[in-house]
Amino acid sequence: DLCALEISQNIIMCSIISNFFNIQMAPTQATVVAQFRDYHAEKFSGQGDPRIVDEWIQGLEFIFEVMECPERYRVICAQLQLTGDARLWWNAYWGLRPGEKAGCTWEMLKELVRDKYYPTYYRAEMERQFLSLQQGTRTVDEYEREITRLAAFVPDLVRTEAQRAQRFIDGLYPAVRHNIVGHGTQTYARAVSIAQEMDASLRRETVRGQSSS
């Protein structure tokens, strides 16, 4: 009937208007690139310490997260930061694969850069250091900072909160570790907090013991 037809027309009109505004509001490549440039991301030349690779990638991911960069524009923004040898390699790589570059995703770019500039032997060394790290004579704060630094190079080993917390606990000074284990399963933040309290307490006792002797 007439009423139903009118309702149907209104629905269609609302849909058209909604689609129009969605198209108008969608960020363009030019606006995304301009916004990205405002963050002054680090350049990457492919030279120097292999650790720079992940530091560069993490820096870009932080910017992309803050600016809510659409996935389809991340490769465009990232390749703008390639300079020197890295840019020559990037252009040569895709020069041998005409027509394939349009399908390159951010995940693919990260994998390609890591394979090229973050060699397997170095990854293995970072993994060894991470898995063998012990608190030793460090304070808990110093140990936690080193765990965090090394974890950035072996993300596959700390994919979950539980894995990160367990690795932190395993390397603690025995007296501190046993205290945390006695508290049951912990989040990473809670494990660090308990360890800091216990570590500070043990160090105070050591100082008192030395003073009284």
From TrEMBL:
<dbReference type="InterPro" id="IPR005162">
    <property type="entry name" value="Retrotrans_gag_dom"/>
</dbReference>
<feature type="domain" description="Retrotransposon gag">
    <location>
        <begin position="78"/>
        <end position="173"/>
    </location>
</feature>
<protein>
    <recommendedName>
        <fullName>Retrotransposon gag domain-containing protein</fullName>
    </recommendedName>
</protein>
<dbReference type="Pfam" id="PF03732">
    <property type="entry name" value="Retrotrans_gag"/>
</dbReference>
